[in-house]
Amino acid sequence: MQQRAMADKAIEQATSVGWRMNRRDIRFVILKWFRELTLIPVIVVLMIAGAIVNPVFFTPSNLINVAEGGAALGMVVVAESLILLTGKFDISLQGTFGLAPLLGAWLIAPKASQGLGTEWNPWLGLLVVLGVGLAVGAFNGILVVKANFNAFIFTLAMSILLTGLQLGWLGGQTVYNLPQAFIYLGSESWVGIPVAVWITVVAFAAAALFLRYHRAGRAMYAIGGNLEAARAAGIQVDRIRIGVFMVASVLAAVGGLMQAGRVTAVTAGQGSNLIFGVFAAAVIGGISLDGGRGRMVGALTGVVLLSLVTNILTLTNISSTWIDAVDGAIILIALGLAKLIGTERA
Amino acid sequence: MGEADHVFKSFGETRALVDVSLDVRAAECHALVGRNGAGKSTLVSLFTGLGRPDRGAIQLAGEATPSLADRGAWLARVACVYQRSMMVPSLTVAENVFLNRRMAGEGALINWRQLRSEAHALMLEWGFDLDVDQEAATLTVEQRQIVEIARALSIGARFLILDEPTAALEKAAVDRLFERVRRLREGGVGVLYISHHLEEIYEICDRVSVLRDGEMVLSGPVSNIRQAELVAAMVGTAPPRRATEIEAVETHGALGETRLQVRDLTVYSRSGSVAGVSLSVRSGECAGLVGLRGSGSATVADAVVGLVRPRSGTILINGSAVEPGQVHSTLHRGVGYVPQDRHARGFAPQLGVDENLTLALLDRLSRRLGIVSYRERKATARRQIEQLQIVARSLDQPVSSLSGGNQQKVVVGRALAPDPNVLVAVNPTVGVDVASKEALLDAIGRARDHGVAVLMVSDDFEDLRVCTRLLVMVRGRIAGEFKQPPWDRQRLIAAIEGFEVAV
């Protein structure tokens, strides 16, 4: 018994290579990035396909169009990815995406353009947007984490409620004629690139850096990987998980603001069905639905892929009634690909 | 009723049963005892058709056993009540009793009225007026056992195996159980009674058999075997490495002030309740808390670190009380914790060795705005890797891909990394190879010598050699204390089994 253990140890030591950086370690690093960059070849293929389908594809204005279309989606993908990493999820982000800007717009727009008539200062309206995000996130977080409601059914109900409020208040109408400050995010450009794109890229970068370098970010991976181990290590798991719900809802509200700015109005249907694309982008980008695994770079490639698909489908002049079916098929193919390459590592 | 005839059973290299013979006659209660890992569970699995002996034969009711696939035939011959519930919790008692079984005159459809009345009648036969419409989940342990026994016997079995039936029962319930076992015995049922509590065996059993390391070392009528003989048979004459006395510990550090104090702790827990436990551990001391599974020893550890909220009592770290049930604030007071089950609570499998080692001191590693210093994280991780001789390919190798021994070292390293004042360790060397065990115990011994107050909960006697004092827990209470190493194995086991109050 003891002999065997000693032999085992000898073998282990022989196969281990100590702490110096060497070829084995380099291969390890490449493998680690591999998972995140699975989608790059797919994106390249899509771009070639796009160029073949329609020469318009590679024009700067179209590419900016792609980026702008993906920006609002990207904000919600950042939000959902943060929650997924801690092992939960939130379907009602799409409700927040619609309801938060609606409430803001409603309070600042004049009665003539479907506002409430209070005509608040637009900056106050922006605060309302963020406040709604914060409040919905806190409510979801506390009830899912502390009261232990099932995240799926609870946030589904919340989503239906929020979307319903949006529809009920507006009565199917659209709030339009919004002040410049309110639509700035979605309608202005800096050095030729829409502000929304800048903000989304910054959000991705900030989330990635936070996850990598901040103690709460590292704790999130531990929580998603093994909640009980994180708790037993003295991490304040409940506080962090609730905080993530709140941050995510605020990000979703900002995403909704971008969308409203882009069309310079808040429609009754803003946000509906958005969440499916969000989950698809996060998951094909390597964010695990079980928590604790995945990176922001991957989620970003997921957003790029989905935006490209939407754009190319529009350019091909496929009948718009078929776009959803093709969209779904491409997501399935991307998932299969991610799985194929992802399992190679495990 | 049930007979094992010179059976052998091996799992890979491990010989679980070697030439074991045992017979349980009709109308007798036969006790089977042995320490953990002696082969009791293996023997039970052969009797219940979950395994087949490599050599030798099992007979039930004087006939050769049915094929392993024919579960129905096994259930009609032998019934086993395990510690764990074998009922579907969301179904009613009546549904559980007739699960996958047809009543007389029943077709494809279920006759609910008949189902209920037959189940109720069955319970009444046992003098047990139970609402058969209640969900099985709402039953107490005692009620659950009765329902399982009644169900088993109604199928036709006359050979009953009770696997540690009293582990979770109150004293009054134990008495009622014994009364039922006696009635069964009078009715001609043969009972194989497995228990860690030897005094129970003298109360209700006729014969006793002792397994040790897979061999039957003693068998005979209870009246002819004294308790001391029984304990001696269980412990055996130890091989040289495992002397009857567990090696004395050499302490280098002097005892300092009291670091951990537990006052009148009462906890309710399914895995072993605790009633009015008080203890204290001083700097430089390692107090071992030993007891059978379910004795509450692990619960004390969980309560100290705040994983379970006690019903009453206080826990003091360095003289001031901690907020009960708050792991975070307790650990921040300078407590290191090695949880019982490394897979459940020990590490985040996909994260690297360095990250897991430093999980408990993220706050201390972070600089301005909470940014984690990777350099310091690596340095801290390297220190633990050196101290515990962790073998890993790189600092960020996922812990899931390490060997069991190295995983456990990471868990212990995580607890030691913040330089705690108090270390609470539950089974710190469970499931690791001999070399890893040495490294782990050495690390804990070093921490103790450096003035850490260690509370070690363990059912592995080898762990106890780093202890300077032992407290024995029986049924949720501290039943005895051993103050001076070396520890006498026999007296220690006797105390753990609940015989005498050691001094």
SSE layout and pairings?
The complex is a heterodimer of chains A (346) and B (503).
Chain A (H helix, E strand, L loop, with lengths): L1 H14 L7 H14 L3 H14 L6 H26 L7 H16 L13 H25 L4 H20 L4 E2 L3 H8 L1 E2 L2 E2 H19 L1 H11 L1 H6 L4 H27 L1 E2 L7 H11 L11 H20 L7 H23 L1
Antiparallel strand pairs in A: 1-4, 2-3
Chain B lengths: L1 E10 L2 E11 L4 E5 L6 H8 L7 E6 L2 E2 L6 H5 L2 E4 L11 H5 L14 H14 L15 H15 L3 E5 L7 H16 L3 E5 L3 H7 L2 E6 L2 E7 L5 H9 L9 E2 L11 E10 L6 E9 L3 E6 L5 H9 L6 E6 L2 E2 L5 H5 L3 E4 L3 H5 L6 H5 L4 H4 L8 H15 L15 H13 L5 E5 L7 H16 L3 E5 L11 E6 L2 E6 L4 E2 H8 L7
Parallel strand pairs in B: 3-8, 3-9, 6-7, 7-8, 14-19, 14-20, 17-18, 18-19
Antiparallel strand pairs in B: 1-2, 1-4, 4-5, 9-10, 11-22, 12-13, 12-15, 15-16, 20-21
Q: What features would you describe in this structure?
A:
Chain A has about 350 residues and is mostly helical. Chain A has helices at about 1-15, 25-35, 40-55, 60-85, 95-110, 120-145, 150-170, 180-185, 195-215, 215-225, 225-230, 235-265, 275-285, 295-315, 325-345; strands at about 175, 190, 195, 265. Chain A contains 15 helices and 4 strands. In chain A, the strands form 2 sheets. In chain A, strands 1-4 form a two-stranded antiparallel sheet. In chain A, a hairpin with a 2-residue loop joins strand 2 and strand 3. In chain A, helix 6 (about 120-145) packs antiparallel against helix 12. The longest helix of chain A has 27 residues, at about 235-265. The two termini of chain A are about 30 Å apart. In chain B, about 45% of the residues are buried. In chain B, helix 8 crosses helix 17 (about 490-495), helix 14 (about 375-390) crosses helix 15 and helix 15 packs parallel to helix 16. Helices cover about 30% and strands about 25% of the residues of chain B. Chain B folds into 2 domains: about 1-85 and about 140-235, Rossmann fold (3-Layer(aba) Sandwich); about 255-495, P-loop containing nucleotide triphosphate hydrolases (Rossmann fold, 3-Layer(aba) Sandwich), CATH 3.40.50.300. In chain B, strands 6-7-8-3-9-10 form a 6-stranded mixed β-sheet, sandwiched between helices. Chain B has a 6-stranded mixed β-sheet with strand order 17-18-19-14-20-21, sandwiched between helices. Chain B is an alpha/beta fold. In chain B, a hairpin with a 6-residue loop joins strand 12 and strand 13 (about 275-280). Chains A and B meet through helix 1, helix 2, helix 10 and helix 11 of A and helix 10, helix 11, helix 13 and helix 16 of B.
